[in-house]
Design goal:
GO terms for molecular function: cysteine-type peptidase activity. It comes from Helianthus annuus. This is Ananain protein. The protein is 39% helix and 0% strand. By secondary structure, it is an all-alpha fold. It is elongated and about 60 Å long.
């Protein structure tokens, strides 16, 4: 199966590059044996459709906000971490996001 996917993708790349009116060219890389769905899942971190009904929204009341500054730079507060390459995490991208939020709240002592 992988070899068939690879062959189809090579054919696509060669066909695309055969047209001289393109401003760029495609090349074979480490994603050449992946299907479109696999590439989409890799790029977005979603392997399954999201069930929005399972997510519960928290309530926010504007009245509970006392003082809000005109602007805030989270970097000055030490609450922004460096950019991380998540690779092929799949669903664990959500765990990474949650962990980053926890680290930010810990740093801010909220």
């Amino acid at each position: 199966m992988r070899s068939n996917i690879f062959k189809k993708n090579v054919e696509f790349v060669e066909s695309f590059n055969s047209f001289g009116d393109r401003s760029y060219k495609l090349a074979i890389n480490h994603f050449a044996d992946r299907t479109k769905d696999e590439l989409k899942a890799y790029a977005t971190g979603h392997n399954d459709p999201v069930d929005l009904k399972s997510h519960v929204a928290t309530s926010f009341k504007y009245e509970s906000v006392s003082e809000v500054p005109d602007s805030m730079d989270w970097r000055e507060k030490g609450a922004v971490t460096e950019i991380k390459g998540q690779g092929a995490c799949g669903k664990s991208i959500f765990n990474t996001t949650y962990l980053e939020q926890i680290l930010m709240l810990w740093e801010l002592k909220i």
